[in-house]
């Protein structure tokens, strides 16, 4: 009976239970082994492929590098001296005038440069738009790279189309609208000076208009300016109605009437005087408020301020020739029919002035005002009379 019961129990057992449990026990290590082998094979394959890619294509082909947003600043700090002495590669910055003047006012305290510095002349063009006499200037600058730099302040709406080969290509600075005789004109000149000061190699600064031409070749002008003991800023005491007659007693105490000066808008000045202008916060507010038409601020602000601060550095004359013989509020403008050999001689001869406290017959380096139609005859006569 007992034997039968045991037999029935054994017959009623699930025949799959025991075999299944034993199968898992035996199969599980084998499957894990297969997975482990597959994983090791994939790791080996990936490692070989990675080494091959690094060897032949570089690391960045495998893992892209994500630079942090502050990296440019860190890179800038880690550069050598070149990052401080090289001029800005792009003149179209986003600084406001206040930021620009502050940045331009920074100067090295050690006077001796720790690198070979070639002093340059900054030619600053204050224009409304195009430069119709650009071919004259292109020929003037040719072959003298490294001794000059160019800056153009035009109307903000003007888009220049100079070719890549032009010396004027991408030389426009951020600009604002200017009005004749108003403080916006001096603002434009300060803007030009400030941008030019960002290039530490610029030592002399010449203000020009689109109607100006050079009267000598580059070598003569560079030598004349670089060897001068004075800056060519016109500043004289005019006791008449167009001089002291424009003075306002509200200028006191910063400016008294005996210090009031008048001069030409078109100047050449040293780096030291340019710094006086961009860092000025004393005289600027007075002229902005109390020198308005019929007080023309571009004729009085710089001459007066520089006379007060550095009169011993001024030549008290301009080096830009103009003709006032026709009368009126503006000098004569010359067109195609005016440009003759007699006219060229008249500009260049019969002059007397002082240069480094000695008499000289070379008094003007530039001339204005020339209409676009004057380009062709000027271009033809320049080799004979201007030397380029």
Short description:
The protein is α/β, with parallel strands linked by helices and 388 residues long. The chain is built from 13 helices and 9 strands.
The shape, in one word, is: elongated
Quick one: how many beta strands? Answer: 9
The largest pleated sheet is described as: 4 strands, mixed
Poorly predicted runs are 1-27, 56-76
Q: Taking Cα atoms only, what radius of gyration do you get, to the nearest Å?
A: 38 Å
**SS-based structural class?**
alpha/beta
* Sheet with the most strands: spatial strand order: 2-1-3-5
What's the tally of helices?
Answer: 13
Sheet-strand content, in percent, reads 5-15%
Order of H and E elements: HHHHHEHEHEEHEHHHEHEEEH
Subunit arrangement of the protein: single chain
Helix content: 25-40%
Terminal Cα separation, in Å? 136 Å
- Residue-averaged pLDDT, rounded? 87
